[in-house]
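Standup, Tuesday
Yesterday: got the pipeline producing structure tokens again.
Today: sanity-check two examples.
Blockers: none.

Example 1:
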Amino acid sequence: ILRNVVHFTAQYFWTIGIVMLPLASVFALEFTMPIWVAFFAWMFLKEQLTGPRILATIGGFIGVLVIVRPGFGMVDPAAGLVLIAAAGYGLSLICVKRLTQHCSPGAIVVWMILIQLPLGFLAALTDWREVHFTDIPWMLVAGIGALAAHYCQAQALKRLAASVVMPIDFLRVPLAAIVGYYAYSEAIDLWVFLGGGIILLSNY
């Protein structure tokens, strides 16, 4: 219950940030999450903050900043909500790490659905929109993708220290740029390659 309430609240704040801030600022602030994970893992799981883990986390965050190059949007008051969301995601992952000690990754995902579905339904009632038939395939793709991601993440956290797993999450930014290029014909500039290289080097 704790894991899912924290995770759901973080998602809600993150969504508000998406509405109120430039995407570049949201991504840059969201990717403070591995830093929060390293801190919470040290505080609650007694994981060691070794030099390589700290360098991987800081280097990955620098790589994200190189790619998204956020502007003044980061000083907007709404940026505080995104930072709270990033901290919430970090705390949620620590809860998942703790749960993997006595729960399977599949059970963690199933309980996530059972607890967050009614929370999401109550939140949706405040701003209900009609669902069109053409929306359903995309909703299924999003749902399957999200469930697969959560399952794989739980499997990784079961096998490795949280502060080792999370810097790899920075790879989402250059991977998203590649998907944007092929799926939406979005341009990939030199900054994407440079930032992606920094992220890869940091993880290595």
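Example 2:
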Amino acid sequence: MPTEAIRSIAAKALEEKRVGLVIGFTPGASPLITQPAFIEESSAAGKLIWNDFCVGNLAKHLLRRDKKIGIIANGCASRNIVVYIVENQIKREDIYIIGVPCQGMLDRRKIKALSGRKKIKDIGTESGRVILSGDGFTKEYSRRELLRESCLYCRHKNPVIYDVLIGELTDENKETADQDIELMETQSTEERLEHFRTIFDRCTLCYACRNACPVCYCPTCFTDRTDPKWFDKPPASGDAFTFHLLRAMHCAGRCTDCGACESACPVGIPITKLTRKLNKDIRTLYNFEAGLSIETPSPLSVYDMEDPQDFILTEELKRKAKTITS
């Protein structure tokens, strides 16, 4: 089982002084919740777990530390580690990665909606089915029915880099990963604009999405600057919508579709629908996905004359630019 293997590997790494800290998950306040665990002693490795609710992106906790760190990483967390390496936020040699192939995490909001007011005391899985039980009830659902949206459309379930791998690599799902985005693309520009305006109207600008996002690591976010003051709290017209558009553009070419932003949102806004659309555009235009190679920076952070730029330069201006640079 992943949990026992994680505990054993973490304890050994700490005993051998290979790392000074292991970052993983530990149980939360209910069976539907886990929370980050920061283990510094091998005797405490027994607190670590791996289950269907390890939804936070642990890579977020790697930044600004002064010791070698061990971390439990599935596909999206490992990709964020790669992004940090590419963006010179961490060094590969300072991270000991315990890779875990991922079958996708379950969405506690979906589970709560299906179970109503009944308290869930136990969750079991068997042959692609999820069994929920509590006082006087037992319900069974298909695993896919309860997956988080980002996990439902995940393209990279396996860790892309690791020092030790727990279990066997799993099959990826790249063929149908963009189905919902492709459906959205059949809408007109006006329809899409209205769709996003409507869903972001619920935003309270609490910034939980920003705080959970692994690639939102600026020491001072532009939204927190007061001179000039960028944003007012709702109901100031348009500020929430503007915030999400600007944040999404900041993450374009860097987002790994981990869904941490959406999981953290207290009002259930489907934030990843916007970021996944941008990721699809980056993949289509530049044949690039964030976090797959420590050698390749985001195409939006570098400049190449061969980049698609028809929306900026006419053919004549492109020829002149090439003449100047040659």
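Quick observation on example 2: Residues 3-107+147-301 form one domain. The first strand starts at residue 21 and ends at 27.
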